[in-house]
Amino acid sequence: MKRALRRAIASLAPAAAEAGVRVLLYHAIDGPDAADRMGLRVSREAFREQMQLLHTAGYRVVPLTRMLEAPSFSRDVAITFDDGYRSEMRAAETLKEFGFTATFFVVPRFLDGMQQPAHYWEHWPHMSWDDARALVEGGFEIGAHSMTHPDLTRCDAGRLIEEVAGVKALLERRLEHEIVSFSYPYGRHNRHVRETAGRAGYRLACTSRYGINRPAGACYNVARTEVTAMDRLVDFRRKLQGKYDWLARWQDLR
Does residue 214 have a pLDDT over 70? Predict the structure, then answer.
């Protein structure tokens, strides 16, 4: 759907009425790349502006695990990052300045430096195991984003267990940090994938479907609002308000 049409609809859409946790989804926080047709690289300047807006507008940035608790404040926001890009380390420094927390979903294949890039976004530098440990020591949460970043809905039973349960065991052993959250690669999941995440011991599993979340304990269908390089500050504000949540229906149709 054309960006101009999305913005026009969002400008007229009502704000979300229900209280809950809005989970933001970021990827790389870095300069533009001509190959980045999906807008995965949000600039450092834009990211800082967005964090400043959260601060001045009175949003409360909470850990993703806040969703496991009782019903929340209506302006709760959780911040998440997928793929474990090295540029996310700079984002962590900005978050510290504002006193914000976040969850970083990492992939051991990338942490090991064995990328064998198959997509343009895999060519970007990724953080190391030492970087992941530094995030844990800095008070951030590390979550799992699978072992190698496949489409889990296409994995056979044995590989699915390794990608979902095996990565949890590996991260916990290497980082000495309990892993309770999972992010589905590409946002793709089905009943079998969700059940595997539950049996592996995760309490939360994140999608890339727009929407707001009402805390009610363990959840394997966490909605997230993606922030992209194409978002202006007014777009970011509208996403916080839920004015883009109608896109979830469009995602379902696709």
Answer: yes
